[in-house]
Design goal:
The protein is an alpha/beta fold. The chain has 9 helices and 7 strands.
């Protein structure tokens, strides 16, 4: 995708991390799969080796961290127009139900926001933010690269991308077999691409 042929500086800008952090990440990637990093003079470039998503997941899954930094649970519904105003995306169980056979339950959606979007939503809602609401907000550590339209016709909101959703859900400690099956179904779906 858009990460291929990017230097540490380019990747830092794309994911909102420091160049030093990304440089460290590239060193870790090179240690695990040397063919993914090439040198161009002093620059290290992330390359496309043609490996399948399943092969890459098998090699890196233990190193992946959930993008969810914080969960905020509210008891009052936030209108879809207010969520769209800050480009909120469906995430968690709400997104998983659109990317697997899990039944849809949209009465209390889970949405993903970056920190700046959370602040914009608080400002947009004003005093209503202080009221309890029926929604779960996940504050994510990075911007979603390519949101999915799989839920848009039904909810008016896009979902986080399938890969990020998989990482977030795979790192949860689900006990329900239906949820575990849905996460496995999502993994199979992203590995077929």
């Amino acid at each position: 995708g858009r990460w291929v042929d990017c230097s540490a500086g380019d990747l830092a800008r794309l994911c909102g991390k420091s160049a030093a952090s990304v440089s460290g990440y590239l060193s870790e990637i090179a240690a695990i799969a040397p063919g993914l990093i090439m040198r161009d003079g002093k620059k290290r470039i992330l390359c496309d080796t043609g490996l399948s998503t399943e092969t890459l997941l098998d090699g890196f899954e233990d190193y992946l961290r959930t993008p969810v930094l914080e969960r905020i649970r509210l008891k009052k519904v936030i209108e879809r127009t207010e969520l769209r105003a800050v480009d909120a995306l469906l995430s968690g169980m709400s997104a998983l139900s659109y990317m697997s056979d899990l039944a849809h339950e949209d009465s209390a959606p889970t949405i993903a926001l970056e920190k700046y979007q959370l602040e914009a939503l608080k400002e947009h809602m004003g005093d209503k933010w202080l009221e309890p609401a029926a929604i779960e907000i996940e504050v994510w550590s990075y911007p979603v690269d390519e949101p999915s339209d799989v839920s848009f016709d039904t909810t008016g909101l896009q979902c986080v991308d399938p890969f990020s959703l998989y990482v977030a859900c795979a790192k949860e400690d689900y006990k329900d077999d239906r949820l575990l099956d849905a996460v496995e179904q999502l993994r199979r779906m992203i590995c077929q691409k």
